[in-house]
Amino acid sequence: MKLFDVYPLYDVEPVSAYDCIVVDKDGKEYLDMYGGHAVISIGHSHPHYVKKLKEQVEKIGFYSNAVQNNLQNKLAEKLGKLSGYDNYQLFLCNSGAEANENALKLASFFTGKSRVVAFHNGFHGRTSAAVAATDNSKINSPLNSQQSVSFLPLNQIELVKTELKKGDVCAVIIEPIQGVGGLDEGTTDFFKALETLCKKYNVVLILDEVQSGYGRSGKFFAHQYHGIAPDIISVAKGMGNGFPIGGILIAPHIQAVHGMLGTTFGGNHLACAAALSVLEVIETENLIDNAKITGEYFISKASTLPGVKKVKGKGLMLGVEFDFEVGELRKKMIYQQQVFTGSAMNKKLLRILPPLTIRKKEIDQFINALQDVLVKMPII
Fold this sequence. Notes:
The chain is an alpha/beta fold and 380 residues long. The chain is built from eleven helices and 14 strands. It has helices at residues 35-38, 47-57, 70-83, 96-111, 128-132, 157-164, 188-200, 269-284, 287-302, 327-335, 360-376, and strands at residues 14-18, 21-24, 29-32, 89-93, 115-119, 149-152, 169-174, 204-208, 232-235, 246-250, 308-314, 317-322, 339-340, 349-352.
């Protein structure tokens, strides 16, 4: 049997990793400035993370959600405390797509309505409703396209108001900082007005923090820069530092009913052990502050590089936008400089999502490597 060939692959095979470094099968080390799509939050193979997973797998790795699992309660308590949402409720699943799928389903249950408002260049996952709310026709099959979704531009609140007034919208789903879309974001005025309109028209406001959450922006959640409180917040990626886990934080006015949501693997013992260890490291090592400080340092350095048009984002969720397409640049960074970076729908943008443990010396290493490639590229 062969693998189903849906991923274009670089000719690199990682076999081990530590902190911000990935090691390939030949022993070559790469600086990880992408964190595997922002998944690696506390660094590869963090000792506390490894210890907690080892301890848990020696006890029990999995049993179904038909029985008590106090690790889920501990995770909910710790997450509520660190995020500032201790009065919210937590539903656990396995991925960001699942989190958004459940968020949209819950919004429809709560409101009795079915249409969704999403935004241009937004990305929310690849499952049925989540991908329908994703602004990319190439990954939406005819089956997905049966969903009722209206796409609007960011920062045009009157257009949002026009749609919500029609009375059939169950949810507005939005990333506080767009990831795959290219690091664009709404203004504070826009987010505050959006929150007000959703309350007025009985629409559930879903903040997709799958990529931007868990300290990546320099706050626990990126929407906290705008002083709003969504009805549902979706999380995943950095939540388990590589162990599959996701979830939604649900406001107290949305009531649970047995059977309305469900999952086999969500919130299993190993996933909870991983997620708890991530929160413990984020807290004890002050990684949210580190994301803010090192992110500001990165912006100050990257902004001076040749060909750089703009540096976008917050904290360690960043995009370096050039005046040329970056596909060839990414290849040179991997094969010539041994540095992983990311791409976006904006073909001129280099996406930067390193572990939150990164220090200024690794940022200097990246900047020097990038500058070396840029000055040698004929396009500059």
